[in-house]
Design goal:
The chain is built from seven helices and 15 strands. It has about 240 residues and is α/β, with parallel strands linked by helices. The chain folds into two domains: about 1-130, Rossmann fold; about 135-245, Beta Barrel (OB fold (Dihydrolipoamide Acetyltransferase, E2P)). Strands 2-1-3-4-5 form a five-stranded parallel sheet, with helices on both faces. Strand 6 (about 135-140) and strand 7 (about 145-150) form a beta hairpin. Helix 1 (about 10-25) crosses helix 5 and helix 2 (about 40-50) runs parallel beside helix 3. The longest helix has 17 residues, at about 10-25.
């Protein structure tokens, strides 16, 4: 679960940023909570009352007489000695580098905000925070195993077992639900749930055909379920577009 705060005195920007974050977290299969504030003072009072945020999108300029974003950042870091919360500053102005350096922000976004830039920051946060470790975990009896996501070509469901097909040609198997494994661990890493028996790694796709996919180092094509064909194509081209950007 990621606890996020958005703080911007422009209600339209705050609402749009919230909408975009909801869409991105949904796409990446990340659980979240989002609080929206319209002044730096309102956000800081909430923090003083004990609320902890993992990630804050913080506007810099507020109305005259209001505490600004840089001051809120300093209070979080210096007064509360909080160096774990990731802060993303947002502003129309670009000339804040020296003021922001001591606050150690995760990133700085220039308004008007762009969807791709916001998603880039979210992915950066997931990686730096360790929430997106790039490993797949599974159990066999009382033993737990971890393997690198990038080494998995596809998963196959067969007789209540899941078979992991690795890029080096090796295999391993364990008991589990392919649907649950996809939703809980693999969806966020751009795997495609093409069939009740197959989840494939986008990185190994060499061809997407009407009713099947071809994978690198896989001699036989894998089928796409009839009812998933349109959805798989949409997801495939969404990933392609995002990665191209």
């Amino acid at each position: 679960m990621i606890i996020v705060a958005i703080c911007d005195d422009d209600t339209k920007i705050g609402a749009e940023l919230e909408r975009v974050l909801i869409e991105i977290f949904g796409k990446l299969n990340i659980n979240y909570e989002i609080d929206v504030f319209f002044s730096g003072g309102e956000l800081y009072r909430n923090i003083e009352q004990g609320t902890h945020y993992d990630l804050i999108f913080l506007d810099i300029e507020f109305a005259k007489g209001e505490i600004n974003g840089v001051e809120v950042g300093r209070l979080i870091r210096d007064t509360h000695q909080n160096y774990t919360t990731s802060i993303v500053f947002i502003s129309y102005e670009k000339n804040y580098a020296l003021q922001l350096f001591e606050i150690q922000p995760l990133h700085f976004l220039v308004k008007p905000l762009e969807y791709e830039k916001i998603e880039e920051v979210v992915r950066m946060y997931l990686k730096t925070s360790g929430l997106w470790s790039g490993t797949f975990t599974y159990k066999k009896g009382q033993d737990t195993f971890k393997v690198r996501i990038k080494d998995i070509v596809y998963l196959e469901s067969l007789d209540r077992k899941l078979i992991i097909h690795f890029a080096d040609g090796n295999k391993d198997d364990f008991y589990g639900s392919i649907k649950e494994v996809y939703q809980d661990q693999l969806k966020r890493f751009d795997f495609l749930y093409i069939h009740n028996s197959y989840v494939v790694n986008y990185d190994y796709l060499t061809a997407l055909k009407f009713n099947q996919v071809l994978l690198a180092d896989c001699a036989e094509p894998l089928p796409i379920s009839k009812h998933r064909r349109n959805e798989i194509r949409e997801i495939y081209y969404d990933i392609l577009k995002r990665r191209t950007v």
